[in-house]
């Protein structure tokens, strides 16, 4: 039986079929890997962003609670002083000036108002309503309550959008004289700008805003929106009901955000920190593109090898088909034309697959290492620190946490440039590592902030270690040619907390206390358990 010439017309050769299947498999594997990696990192970025925003809102709420209590205490003291000078308008002015100028800029103006609504005295006098009778529903309600009062935003007698905090003034015999009111001008510089201004907006588009208990904006990066009713926002509705949390939300302008929010107990206000979903997705696309750039060379090499192996795999069958063709034509085929192909090809295929798997594992190991390492200092990064803390907490072994921050690092950057600032960061990393035991770890947390984990240590043993780091860093020749100092906060497990968040918060608070007490020092965090 002879083969007919037209028999193979329109048929796919085995070499093309094998090659096509291998190319398809490699491409699909790469696509699946990218899609799965994209989804996994998307979930991680979403959750991380929500956690960071909620942490920011919680810290701001805690700060505001403390600030409002301090403002309330200041007014109570001022009310007692005003009662002693109530009969003399000139003397009454003195405690008001002292509160305004000596109270840390807590209020934009302070006024003493009689029960009849007459402004007995005001500081600063440039407000221009001293001696005048003023009326507003807010002041009327405060007079009626004769108790500490905090108003909703309203337009005051000066035409400004303000909020008022007031304290009643009572004579020694208990008679009600009037009230002492401190005002905050929402459209002008105020104490909230001073305290929270740095948290309002960053380059990623993340920003924070504050709403009152009625759902109106009292603090926002866009001053034009102050006083706007935003109750339609689901996050604001949660805050009005006293709830804290985090969620993906569409705001009143139709923009989607990842928001964390916290309720302020002292006055019922709410604080929201949120990041545009678009900026998170942009960062995610950037990471995916970088991953593709890492994978592409290995994939291209793997494709070339795979096609070559497919051709080699098909070669014996192709050769046998040619032999069959020769036989069908009656030609003689020497036995030497039939070498043993199969074992050799199988061995080559195994070797190439092992090389491909090894290449992909090395690629994955490299990506994992880069994801856990700070590229500037070579230290483990924040993600590596979180993993290490979780392992320590699961093992329930005692350890200490040092949070350190370079003093006046912004001045170094502004004076010497960011390149020198980077040298300073690398200098700190090298200095810290030189003072640590082999069992201890140093991480770069972010910016000029570093974290050290000391194995089997407590606050007592961690303090000399921290001091050794601080003194070594201060005394060693720095990239800027003069001493640079550190502020260090210490927390230990389990004394300072039972969770990673509590431990870091304790050490972070201690570090900021070190800065507030003069910098270049080590402070131990307070006991919390």
Walk me through what this model shows:
There is one protein chain. Among the domains are: 13-47 and 280-370, no CATH class; 382-524, Reverse transcriptase/Diguanylate cyclase domain (Alpha-Beta Plaits, 2-Layer Sandwich). Helices cover 50% and strands 18% of the residues. It contains twelve helices and 16 strands. The strands form three sheets. Strands 1, 2, 3, 4, 5 and 6 form a six-stranded antiparallel sheet that branches. It starts with 13 loop residues before the first helix and ends in a 5-residue tail after the last strand. 29% of the residues are buried.
Detail the poorly predicted runs: 1-6, 349-354
Kindly state the number of beta strands: 16
Principal-axis shape equals elongated
- The whole-number mean of residue pLDDT values reads 82
CATH fold call of the domain at 382-524? Alpha-Beta Plaits
CATH homology group of the domain at 382-524 = Reverse transcriptase/Diguanylate cyclase domain
CATH architecture title of the domain at 382-524: 2-Layer Sandwich
C-alpha termini separation: 93 Å
Largest sheet: 6 strands, antiparallel
Structural category is alpha+beta
Instruction: Give the helix level as a range of percent.
Output: 40-55%
Radius of gyration: 35 Å
CATH top level class name of the domain at 382-524: Alpha Beta
Tally the helices: what do you get?
12
SS strand fraction: 15-25%
Order of helices and strands: HHEEHEEEEHEEHEEEHHHEHHEEHEHE
